[in-house]
Design brief:
This protein is an alpha/beta fold. It folds into two domains: 215 residues, FAD/NAD(P)-binding domain (3-Layer(bba) Sandwich), CATH 3.50.50.60; 146 residues, D-Amino Acid Oxidase, Chain A, domain 2 (2-Layer Sandwich). It contains nine helices and 19 strands. A hairpin with a 4-residue loop joins strand 10 and strand 11. Helix 1 runs parallel beside helix 7, helix 3 crosses helix 7 and helix 3 crosses helix 9. The C terminus is likely disordered.
């Protein structure tokens, strides 16, 4: 009998897992507290930095490299199955440095890219102005400026990604339950005595006092994962980090490639929308935006790409990124909790790492050898578990 699996969380990671498992003939139910794709994934910029699986040895580099390898195939398959273009584009990225600190940071990045055999070319400022005219003013106004070109950087449109994954899940037979709040997740071995064992070991309790049982349950609700089961103490290792985003609009795209300056960026869509981000703020679960920060982002965008001065401001929003203490996501089984799994803590890389997370965790759940070793992402390295409950 094909295994039954409950996926808790309908962002990029959860939807990718549900689709991958359904394609492997699993009986999948996906549960989301709101509408699928309406959380952190929707708020993301959709930047996929360069990666190279062939030369990767570090666990994160291998996970990133596998996803980078999978994305073109996934994009093609999603378009074929759903007719939705996720707008995966190999647009390349400019990496700019304005200060001595940023140049030092870039020196480290260049050494890393060289080691990974990822192409990175130092570009004289006059050539930058010629190749990306919108940056011409930046090249003359910043005396200590330096620029590098990285061709293997992609962009994707997160709302289209979740729309496509949602549609693919439905067409693959996934049962999707939206607006369902999960209040507890447990293994039958530690579930309360009044919950009768059905098929499998995972028991998901909902706010309406009903339960769903399956062979496995996967927790992939981003920053909300920690609150799904207090006994797992996952909230001790997942920290919400707020990022804010500004959306501008021009008649046509003002830049052809992604522009990165430190942890800030400008990314233009084909329809003339331009995203400007971002920041990293420890503000708990506060999803509000701050006008001072948004104005800082606006001024950064204008200083970098002056043609954005006349752009209309469409909207602004914030999202919460799930950060872990060691910077590694949690991908794998929950210790001493048969049938419970976690895929969370991807921080700023949830969209980029979603395909690799889905493929490797599906391998592990189904008893196959994962495409890459995920032992470094083991759940429990930082948590304190109470198995007596």
């Amino acid at each position: 009998m094909n295994p039954s699996i409950i996926v808790v969380g309908g962002g990029a990671v959860g939807l990718s897992l549900a689709w991958e498992l359904a394609r492997r003939d699993c009986e999948v139910t996906l549960i989301d507290r709101g509408e699928v794709g309406s959380g952190t994934t929707w708020t993301a910029a959709g930047i996929l930095p360069p990666a190279n699986l062939e030369h990767a040895t570090d666990p994160m580099d291998r996970l990133r490299g596998l996803s980078h390898q999978l994305y073109p195939k996934w994009s093609e398959q999603l378009l074929k199955e759903t007719s939705i273009d996720i707008e995966l584009r190999r647009c390349g990225g400019w990496y700019l440095a304005e200060t001595a600190g940023e140049r030092a940071l870039m020196a480290g990045m260049i050494a890393y890219w060289n080691e990974m055999q990822i192409q990175c070319d130092a570009v004289p400022l006059p050539d930058v102005a010629r190749r990306e005219p919108s940056l011409a003013n930046w090249t003359t106004q910043t005396p200590s400026a330096a620029a590098w070109w990285v061709p293997d950087e992609y962009q994707i449109r997160p709302p289209r990604l979740t729309q496509a994954l949602h549609a693919a899940c439905v067409s693959s037979g996934v049962t999707i339950r939206q607006g369902c709040e999960v209040v507890d997740v447990a293994s039958n071995d530690v579930a309360s005595h009044d919950v009768a064992s059905n098929r499998g070991t995972a028991v998901v309790s909902l706010a309406d006092r009903t339960t769903i049982k399956a062979d496995h349950a996967i927790l992939c609700s981003g920053v909300w994962t920690g609150g799904l089961a207090d006994r797992l103490h996952l909230n001790q290792s997942l920290i919400p980090i707020r990022g804010q985003m500004l959306l501008l609009k021009t008649d046509r795209p003002v830049i052809e490639s992604i522009v990165n300056v430190g942890n800030r960026y400008v990314i233009a869509r084909e329809d003339g929308h331009t995203l400007v981000g971002s920041c990293e703020e420890e503000s708990g679960f506060d999803l509000s935006t701050d006008e001072t920060m948004l104005e800082t982002l606006h001024q950064f965008a204008i200083a970098t790409v002056p043609s954005l001065r006349t752009a209309s401001r469409v909207s602004a929003w914030s999202g919460l990124r799930p950060m872990t203490f060691d910077g590694f996501p949690m991908i794998g089984p929950v210790p001493s909790q048969p049938g419970l799994w976690v895929a969370s803590g991807h921080y700023r890389s949830g969209i980029h790492l979603a395909p690799a997370t889905a493929v490797t965790l599906a391998d592990a759940i189904l008893g196959e050898r994962p495409a890459i070793d995920i032992s470094s992402f083991a759940v429990g390295k930082q948590q304190v578990f109470d198995t007596s409950l």
